[in-house]
């Protein structure tokens, strides 16, 4: 019994370690990517949507829903730490503590949602599985629509259309049959509706 408990703790520790390392690396890559991608495309390097992809798959590695949500949240917090830590200690660029706090809180919320989504996609079947696929696809469709409908983002329309297309491509990749893909597309609808509301709230606290 004790041996099983020790093995369980070791696995949880390894999972958490992987999550934080992935997060730190993605956060640092975000800073570096902003200087590599040309023009408006560098917005993809600084996109919360892109950050949620590894969080989703980290959630898929979790053996329980609770671990999946915690692991995804840890990875996203690692991304925040990697991004702002590299900017401050390597590039010597100061950042507001307010924004660090806002994005840390968003990391916890995003980790819970997308960690659960990744776990449902990886470990469930039927409707819950397709709901997980619809969550990731809907994420990109939401950001694409947000860019295309935002008055100040007219110069980024190519990025918006690309993200819109990527959202549908994710459904093609994550599902293996056309009936499942159509059901996942249906699952995207509430994701997009709630996502647009979420963008409105996020703009309110960061503007």
From TrEMBL:
Transmembrane stretches, start-end? 12-32, 44-61, 68-86, 98-121, 133-152, 158-175, 182-202
* Keywords, comma-separated and alphabetical: Membrane, Transmembrane, Transmembrane helix
Which InterPro entries did the record assign?
DUF6518
> Is GTP-binding a UniProt keyword of this protein?
no
* Keyword NADP recorded: no
Protein's recorded name: DUF5668 domain-containing protein
């Amino acid at each position: 019994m004790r041996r099983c408990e020790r093995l369980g703790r070791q696995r949880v520790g390894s999972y958490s370690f992987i999550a934080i390392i992935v997060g730190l690396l993605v956060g640092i890559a975000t800073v570096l990517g902003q200087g590599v991608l040309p023009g408006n495309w560098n917005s993809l390097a600084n996109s919360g949507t892109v950050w949620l992809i590894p969080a989703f798959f980290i959630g898929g590695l979790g053996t329980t829903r609770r671990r999946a949500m915690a692991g995804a949240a840890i990875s996203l917090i690692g991304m925040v730490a990697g991004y702002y830590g590299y900017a401050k200690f390597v590039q010597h660029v100061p950042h507001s503590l307010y924004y660090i706090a806002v994005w840390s809180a968003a990391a916890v919320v995003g980790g819970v949602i997308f960690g659960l989504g990744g776990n449902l996609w990886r470990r469930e079947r039927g409707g819950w599985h397709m709901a997980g696929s619809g969550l990731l696809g809907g994420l990109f469709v939401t950001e694409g629509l947000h860019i295309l409908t935002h008055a100040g983002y007219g110069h980024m329309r190519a990025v918006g259309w690309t993200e819109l297309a990527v959202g549908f491509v994710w459904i093609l990749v994550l599902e293996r049959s056309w009936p499942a893909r159509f059901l996942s597309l249906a699952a995207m609808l509430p994701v997009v509706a709630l996502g647009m509301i979420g963008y409105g709230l996020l703009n309110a606290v960061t503007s």
